[in-house]
Amino acid sequence: MQAVTLREEPGLLRAVGIALLTAAGSAALFPMWQNAWTLWSEDPLRSIGAIFPIIALLLVLWRWRRLQFRGRGSYWGLLLIALSILGARVFDAATFNVTLGGQRWGLLHPGMVLFCYGIGCTLLFGGVPLLRRAIFPLCLLLLINPVPRFFNTVVDLPLQQLGAGTARAFSHLIGLRPTGEQLKMMFAPDFGMMIVPGCNGVRGSITLGYLALIFGYTRGLSAKALAVLTTGAFLMGYVLNLIRLCTLVIYYKVGLSWIAIQKYGVEIDYVIGCTIFLFATLGIGLAVRFYQLREGSGEQAPPALPASPATGFALRALCFAALILVFLIPQARAINAARHTVEPTAADVLAALPKQVGRYTLTRTWTEGDTARKVNIVLGEYRADDVKDGRFTLGLWIGGGNHFVANSKLYRDVHPQWTGAFEATAASSLPVRFIGSFYDDGVNRSYDAETACIASGCRENLVMDPKTGIVFSSPDLAELAVARSTRRLPILLRREWTDATVPQTAQRAEFEADARDFVAHLQIQPLVQSVGH
């Protein structure tokens, strides 16, 4: 890239100002950012996604500079920006999943919201010429969740086994037998190590893959070269991690006889990893240079575009700011109100569980949380002695957002035998629509019925047939225009069986009939008002 001066590029300040304006305007996508932050902060594997919005913005500016920061923007971009903000509202207030072959897949992806916003801003200020040249950087916005869920089971787990097996085989090769007493936790006080599948280097591999992709793009490589280079860098990360593990095995063998180095195990691991990553990065740079020389990469200068009047930019910027403020002001008020609202604790929710629901009596309660020990769901078991298999588990999701237990099970590779829907009526004539998922592992069976409740009712809408359909919980129309203020409470109703000889259809019919009776005596509105979020 050539040096840029304010004298040579009179449009630079205007472009930087627009970039800052669009970055600030993305605050209107607050629900999307909130979800993304949770993803990045709680999952180290996906934390790399936090840098992609920044990289995308810089690359779009780089592309715009090649057009001399010219181009007639289009007001159609405002429509896309508005749709992206509405999409963020839907993402916060609704659930949208498609069921294919008994498996559910979420279609509300935060990256799609940000991608639509980026396209709208690019079209509004840079026009179609910039949009054509900046489509790759904008696609990086889709990668705020850089690792798809299926990656863990389809790619990562097999390579984990390969890495652990290779390291163990190498330890046997050099005379170490990591069994019995020698299987100790790595860098323990008495000096031991454990070679486990988790030491697979997946974060390094993903980082190298994306590094090769982005660096190769900036050097003008072809799509074929980018595909080869990215795949090679990703696989190289796994191979280099095998080298790292084998090097650590050698360190362990040396440390058995050289006691002085035993206390530096963590530091040595970091030094080995950083050194390998450095050489891998240099190797990627050389590979990009090789392809660049081979292909003669280098873009032709884009055609000169007519300069856009400053008044045109200013008018579009004012329209953009006005649109953002229309959505942002109610959002800010809702956030401020939420800050002064005392959220119920797990103990409060446990106390709110009704002690009696018709013929069913609460017999025990418990909570479940995530790896950070944050309580996400409160559950209570209800029994009725005069009902066959008269036991229900009532779960109240308090972890925030819209939660679908079936999705969580899907991520753990637990798939339902079938899905469906049924209607019920709660106390005070509150309409309820449940989505049901039936599970059978050959020993135990369970039926999960889920819905999302607000004060006016509980609705999960199933479109198409149960095996190939769409699960959609619709928000209030008012929540699309302003920040969500209505309290919402996802509810789970579950029954489990240990008798696998009874036909599934009979258990399904029995569950739905008993569930209607249970829900008919359940006061949902007080629960939503007291423990909803």
Automatic annotation (TrEMBL):
MF terms (GO), sorted A to Z: peptidase activity
InterPro entries: Exo/Archaeosortase_dom, Exosortase, Exosortase_J
Record's keyword terms, sorted: Cell membrane, Hydrolase, Membrane, Protease, Transmembrane, Transmembrane helix
Cell compartment(s), UniProt: Cell membrane
Chief site of localization: membrane
Biological process terms in GO annotation: proteolysis
Entry superkingdom: Bacteria
Any one GO CC term of the record: plasma membrane
Coiled coil: none
Pfam families (UniProt xref): Exosortase_EpsH
Signal peptide stretch: none
Descriptive protein name: Exosortase J
Lineage start: Bacteria, Pseudomonadati, Acidobacteriota, Terriglobia, Terriglobales
